[in-house]
Amino acid sequence: MTDTFRALLIDKTDEGQSVAYTQLTDADLMEGDVTVRVTHSTVNYKDGLAITGKAPILRKYPLIPGIDFSGEVIASGDARYQPGDNVICTGWGVGEAHHGGFSERARVPGEWLVPVPEGWSNADAMTMATAGFTAMLCVLRLEDLGLTPEAGDVVVTGAAGGVGSVAVALLATAGYSVYASTGRPEEVDYFKTLGAKDIVHREEFSGKARPLSKARWAGAVDVVGSSTLANVIAQMKYHGIVTACGLAQGADLPANVMPFILRAVTLAGVESVTVPREARLRAWARLAQDIDMERMKAMTSHIGFDDLAATADKIVRGQTRGRVVVDIA
User: What residues are paired with 11 via a beta bridge?
Assistant: First the structure.
């Protein structure tokens, strides 16, 4: 174990936010009983907001951002993990209140970790990461509430992003007729590669939502929020189910009760930060079972550790698609 390691550190002063690579030691890490040599991380929308300073994602300073990571255990006080084990960390405030994955080393409680699925590399794990985990939670929620492929068409909003892209692929693999909502009609071939039947332009979900619109969707995964989610709800079929897991457009919901009391629509929330361990293991096991990793690799780009700032700016501007894996090692 070397004496120092490299990390991206964000600090805040009266003059504003600073973002810089720095050399740290184990003494700079936060509390936890498992130390990990980080090999890979990802750039999520939250990470983009944190690095660019466009939203108050970080809850303490200075802090290493990066809301997920995978790597090799190098020291453990948790009997479930031994040096050499490959592990995944998502959620639990990592990269927001606890030092995160944009670092060559991390220390977290063992309870926050899950094993990398058998047959996967650490890079494969980050091809999924928080986005894939969240998408799987959305699909499981739809299924647990009774949605089946026979019920009808399903729509995924914000489909070009990480959660949306994986959700499209997972739903298609599970046999659903899935439509990808996007503002990029030129990407139709990309979405069909993921398994989408077709695309729906996001303008169909823009503007003020009507109390009820033509019933079209049996299920939906929404990562956008605001008026997009309101319009999706208004277009749901009788007993339609919507899972909501994001707010890329906004945290408001300018909807009304008509879809709920006339069509018995269900709006189910999905969060991926404090999910109990057993539910995490279920989701990761299902991902390993259902996901076509080669298909996912085709929608994944890799960047170097030094490319984080430029990529963060792109993801906030909506100029990326699919998954962005950071090769830390």
Answer: 18
Residues in contact with 209: Cβ distance below 8 Å, sequence separation at least 6, in sequence order: 227, 230, 231, 233, 234, 254, 255, 256
| Nearest CA-CA partner of 91 in 44, 130, 51 | 130
Tokens at 11, concatenated: 């600090």
pLDDT top residue among 54 and 88: 88
- The angle at the Cα of 67, spanning 89 to 292, to the nearest 5 degrees, equals 65
Residue with tokens 């699919």: 322
Look up the pTM and report it: 0.91
Per-residue pLDDT reduced to its tens digit, 24-39: 999 999 999 999 999 9
CB 89 within 8 A of CB 106: yes
> In the 8-state DSSP scheme, what is residue 250?
B
Domains and CATH numbers, the chain: 5-116+299-327 (3.90.180.10), 130-269 (3.40.50.720)
> Cβ(281)–Cβ(255) under 8 Å?
no
Is 324:296 a contact under the CB 8 Å cutoff?
Answer: no
Q: Are 139 and 149 in contact (CB under 8 A)?
A: no
